[in-house]
Amino acid sequence: MATVEELKLRVRELENELIKCKQKRCAEKDAGGSQKHYRQRIEKMSAEVVDSNPYSRLMALKRMGIVEDYERIRSFSVAVVGVGGVGSVTAEMLTRCGIGKLILFDYDKVELANMNRLFFQPHQAGLSKVEAAEHTLRSINPDVSFETHNYNITTMDNFTHFMDRISHGGLQEGKPVDLVLSCVDNFEARMAINTACNELGQIWMESGVSENAVSGHIQLIIPGETACFACAPPLVVAANIDEKTLKRDGVCAASLPTTMGVVAGILVQNVLKYLLGFGSVSHYLGYNAMQDFFPTMSMKANPQCDDHYCRKQQEEYKRKEAERPKQEVVVVEEAQVVHEDNEWGIELVSEVTEEELQAASGPKPDLPEGITVAYTIPEKVNAPAGEMVEETEQSLEELMSQMKRM
Amino acid sequence: MADEATRKAVSEIPLLKTNSGPRDKELWVQRLREEYLALIKYVENNKSADNDWFRLESNKEGTRWFGKCWYIHDLLKYEFDMEFDIPVTYPATAPEVAIPELDGKTAKMYRGGKICLTDHFKPLWARNVPKFGLAHLMALGLGPWLAVEIPDLIAKGLIQHKEQQNNS
């Protein structure tokens, strides 16, 4: 006989099935029973300016001398991790631009609480975000190939699969993707992406919106060259809000469609510039919505980074740089723009006693006005205060059963 | 960071030595042994201070943890199931503890019933990598969360005492 748990699972499965059926019917109704609203796939991008050409305005970028070869967009594969407020809009922009392939990762479902953000619609509530997104995006542009993964990348099994898809999910199966975009909303997932990209030497871009919804940032991470996510404590755009007046009671996070749209916009702009080779690609671009201030900077990888793959990539980068002829020196200089004076005395670590602050504050990286770190980490001390675990003869199994008996 | 009692409890939890995560094979076993030693010591300390409040166990790989935590309010014991996965980036990032049965009842939770920790938990954890382990996560993360949220949920009538519920 089936257990209650199994039955619960079955009910959940059937509910999902029902939502999908309803969706399909809605879509059919929308389409008036015909396929009229869905266009055929287009083999080759045309620059012809006619109402029926979805690429005419994009191809015009070539004629205007902005982009040299716009069609190249179809040769790229981009992974979008996190299909929420920023990720879904990012995926839509790339889809409309005619990207070759999109790989979407998200473990979450669409909820009515997401309706203050762009992209998802109320009738999609209950569907997995990746599934709902694929459905919409495919109907917008059937030329894009999609691959979706509905799981949490930070757990062991999924992480292995995630790494595999980053290194093999290119437009041509087996090749790595061209770029990974982090559109996640938490530190754990960012660190997981960072770990994967450092190991694989995969270039990626990080994006984020603050929990109070009034600032955000994007960052380009080239393993070994620019600072990785573990090279420094998380960077934040100084919001210039008095911490004491910032009320957090009763909520975890606020969000605005505006801030998320702006961040998705500057992210995809940077992606297009990076992939298609026009303009200058930002290493870090912040957005402070309260003052309408956009600080920029560039930060080199930290030789003492805790991630040993980051350090390894740095060695590799150094070796390559040394081998390069002199002309490339310009690129190195570009990576050093960091050192402007930092007059900001703002310490974001609040709600901590003075002693704790003194004991716990560490060196702050040299950052331009408007950008700071979420917290500092003190220099490593060899003899930590406090008692360490004592070594015992007990095996892990013995300890597990001892804990169980308590 | 926290009240005096929490500080004292935390200072009595042994610190961990091995900086390794679930993707490191043998070193992870060593880290797991340290995790269990620290957890056992913390539970023993709680018992002797008459403040026993949780139990935890894991799968044999130590990647998935589950257990119970309870909170005494007006002499009644409110018990909840908790669970969490060890992220691949552990111990650089702390696990996200979830109490699924409270999902949707409080705004101080992320989807799936993951508890929303205070602003200073993350800096505190980051500064203490790899010395802090799961016992510290319980003492500094889940413990203070329960102490704030449970009385509030009871006052709002969002959770009832299980036996009372059965009697009525």
TrEMBL record, chain A:
Q: Which Gene3D superfamilies match?
A: NAD(P)-binding Rossmann-like Domain (3.40.50.720)
Q: Which residues form a coiled coil?
A: none
**What is the protein named?**
Ubiquitin-like modifier-activating enzyme 5
What SUPFAM superfamilies does this protein map onto?
Answer: Activating enzymes of the ubiquitin-like proteins (SSF69572)
Pfam families xrefs: ThiF
Gene Ontology terms for molecular function: ATP binding; metal ion binding; UFM1 activating enzyme activity
Where do the THIF-type NAD/FAD binding fold domain residues begin and end?
55-306
What Gene Ontology cellular-component terms does the record carry?
cytosol
Give the domain of life. Eukaryota
Q: For this UniProt record, give its keywords in alphabetical order, as a comma-separated list.
A: ATP-binding, Metal-binding, Nucleotide-binding, Ubl conjugation pathway, Zinc
One Gene Ontology term of the biological-process aspect is: protein ufmylation
Record's family?
Belongs to the ubiquitin-activating E1 family. UBA5 subfamily.
Organism of derivation: Synaphobranchus kaupii
UniProtKB/TrEMBL annotation, chain B:
Which GO terms of the molecular function aspect are on file?
Answer: UFM1 conjugating enzyme activity
Answer whether the UniProt record assigns the keyword Repeat to this protein. Answer: no
A GO biological process this protein is involved in? Answer: protein K69-linked ufmylation
- Keywords, alphabetical: Ubl conjugation pathway
- Residues in the active site? C116
UniProt key word Metal-binding:
no
This protein's GO CC annotations: cytoplasm
Summarizing the function annotation, the protein's role is:
E2-like enzyme which specifically catalyzes the second step in ufmylation. Accepts the ubiquitin-like modifier UFM1 from the E1 enzyme UBA5 and forms an intermediate with UFM1 via a thioester linkage. Ufmylation is involved in various processes, such as ribosome recycling, response to DNA damage, interferon response or reticulophagy (also called ER-phagy).
Instruction: Tell me its family.
Output: Belongs to the ubiquitin-conjugating enzyme family. UFC1 subfamily.
**Record note on quaternary structure:** Interacts with UBA5 (via C-terminus). Interacts with UFL1. Interacts with UFM1.
Q: What is this protein called?
A: Ubiquitin-fold modifier-conjugating enzyme 1
Q: Which organism is it from?
A: Synaphobranchus kaupii (Kaup's arrowtooth eel)
- Tell me the organism's taxonomic lineage: Eukaryota, Metazoa, Chordata, Craniata, Vertebrata
